[in-house]
Structure prediction request, 147 residues.
Amino acid sequence: MMVIKGYYYNGRDSGRQEMTVRQAGGMLQFFIGESMETECRLSDIDISKRIGDNPRHFTLSDGASFETNDNEAVDAMLSGHDMDKSGRLVHKLESKWRYVAFSLVFVVVFCYTVVIYGVPFFCREGGVSAPDRDKYPYRRAYSGNIG
Prediction:
């Protein structure tokens, strides 16, 4: 049985209470002290994605929420149920400096290529495909001193 410690917010006021969450199969049981506050299926809870070491939030259907800093335990709980695969991949990529540096170099090269080659290309193609001004005389009044 997995236990995650954190804080409970009831959704009606700004107060928080210490809470533990216990996983029993596909159910999560929320305890304040020794008394069970609520029980929900894991699939009915909206769990925030992992971003660095920021706290994770579980949003319950009644508007209450649970916040924890134990990201490793939340990842372990979700991995057993094939949930949040994309969030785990993003966390792995952002935690390796090699991937971050490669992504930064890729973005800089991509932006440079678009500005140096893409913008002039699309300007040329747009100019070639624009209609001739003399062919449409009603547009002359609106074209001003262009060309």
Observations:
- The helical segments are 71-79, 85-94, 97-129, 140-143.
- DSSP finds four helices and seven strands in the chain.
